[in-house]
Amino acid sequence: MSGTSIAITVDDRDIAAGLQRLVDAGADLRPAMEAIGAALLFTTQRRFEAKAGPDGQAWAPFAPSTLKRMPERRKPPQLLRDSSRLYQSLTYQAGPESAEIGTNVVYAAIHQFGGDIVMPERQGSATFVTVRQGAGKAKDGRRVGSKLRFARASTRAKSRETKTFTVPTHTVSIPARPYLGVSEADKVEILAILSDHLAAAGGEVRP
Fold first, then answer.
1. What is the pLDDT of residue 184?
2. Domain encompassing residue 132
């Protein structure tokens, strides 16, 4: 998989033993790896829907400040599924010796592990127009407060005014919301897959 690579190695004695029995039975491991990859892809996708990691722990919710400035087009808010790009990029690859699940989205790792992103200083601008009435409303019904309203940069209103501003360097903290990994339920499913393939290969199936 090109792009960001996240490797999580499953070191489980029972799974390793099941794979070894398949090898001893002379079976081709690729079909089993294909089934394991497909099963892990399915459970990984379900974590986006459950909003929880492989250990069942719920993902950190949006910060109140994030929800406050979130535009209407992003509501109702969806953790890690704002555009569904990360969710839809999940895929798996299977070979004769391994099954790998992941994504090539460059920001995948920061959401899996969490971390800080330093945003450099930048220049910005905003366009305003002046209206007849203020933005607020007094108890007696009078309109009070600022008469400035945000407007599109392309507006042709005579009262149009564009102001420039500087956004200073700042740090954005992203909480870890793990979606890749192998849960206990995944291990049970992997062992079941190995058992089925071992039975098909005529090998010894152990409880």
1. 92
2. 121-168
